[in-house]
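> call design_seq(struct)
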């Protein structure tokens, strides 16, 4: 039986994707910050699908050390993971810092997915075969198309936060960049990787309106789609990409598209990867000296 790991599974899209995968017969590993909500979700799924396994882990994905410890625990308990869905994300117009003083959008939207990929890559490789590849899906956004340049030196401590079209869009663009620089080495291990724009969706994030321009807030009730329908569309889009053996592509609103030009810039790719690796290594060094 296949196993998928999802972060942010208690939110609108995360909950719907979890439900769809459970209906398709997947075992699920659910990583969330709120233990009470996660426990309720697991109880509900277990009642509906008693012959499947649903395991929950509580973690602050904005905290490098917590991500590392949680990934280690998951790796010990689950030797094979077929799919990793990086769904958890942050959109706000406020400056929030991680325990390591990393700006919150970058810590949660970009660094945490990269850390989980690095840590769980051996488990994905163990589950993958040429005919049945493992795959990674990181939730991006159509807002990445507005990002024309990226100063990687400002990702950890940006000058402005700016909501939807600033720190949020830039850190989500990192997911597209990441898919581009990882795709070839992962493909050699029968692992596919995608960045995914779920499309305009009514979720808890959009309901809060934090970080969204005023004109977008006005459109939410009219143009933003139902979470269940959007979730089915994105799961179908991922299935199509896997079946057609495409990797590194941008799945937008259920359709396979090219990544924005920024993501294919090898100079930016190298700077982003170097930055994230250095943050992880520095955290490891500090932990060893404590």
């Amino acid at each position: 039986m296949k196993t998928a790991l999802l972060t942010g599974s208690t939110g609108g899209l995360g909950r719907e994707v979890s439900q769809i995968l459970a209906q398709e017969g997947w075992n699920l590993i659910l990583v969330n910050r709120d233990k009470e909500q996660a426990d309720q979700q697991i109880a509900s799924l277990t009642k509906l699908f008693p012959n499947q396994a649903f395991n929950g882990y509580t973690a602050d994905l904005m905290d490098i050390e917590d991500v590392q410890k949680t990934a280690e625990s998951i790796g010990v308990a689950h030797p094979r993971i077929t799919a990793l869905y990086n769904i958890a994300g942050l959109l706000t117009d406020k400056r929030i810092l991680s325990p390591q003083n990393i700006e919150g959008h970058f810590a949660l939207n970009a660094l945490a997915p990269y850390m989980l990929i690095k840590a769980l890559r051996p488990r994905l490789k163990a589950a993958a075969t040429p005919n049945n590849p493992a795959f990674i899906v990181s939730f991006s956004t159509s807002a990445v198309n507005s990002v024309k340049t990226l100063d990687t030196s400002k990702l950890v401590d940006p000058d402005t936060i700016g909501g939807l079209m600033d720190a949020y869009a830039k850190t989500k663009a990192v997911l597209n960049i990441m898919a581009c620089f990882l795709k070839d080495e992962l493909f050699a291990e029968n692992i596919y990787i995608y960045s995914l724009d779920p499309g305009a969706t009514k979720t808890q994030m959009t309901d809060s309106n934090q970080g969204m321009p005023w004109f977008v807030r006005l459109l939410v009730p009219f143009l933003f789609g139902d979470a269940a329908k959007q979730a089915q569309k994105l799961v179908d889009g991922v299935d199509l990409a896997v079946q057609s053996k495409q990797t590194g592509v941008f799945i937008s609103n259920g359709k396979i598209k090219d990544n924005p030009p920024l993501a294919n810039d090898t100079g930016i790719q190298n700077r982003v990867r170097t930055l994230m690796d250095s943050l992880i290594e520095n955290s490891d060094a500090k932990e060893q000296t404590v």
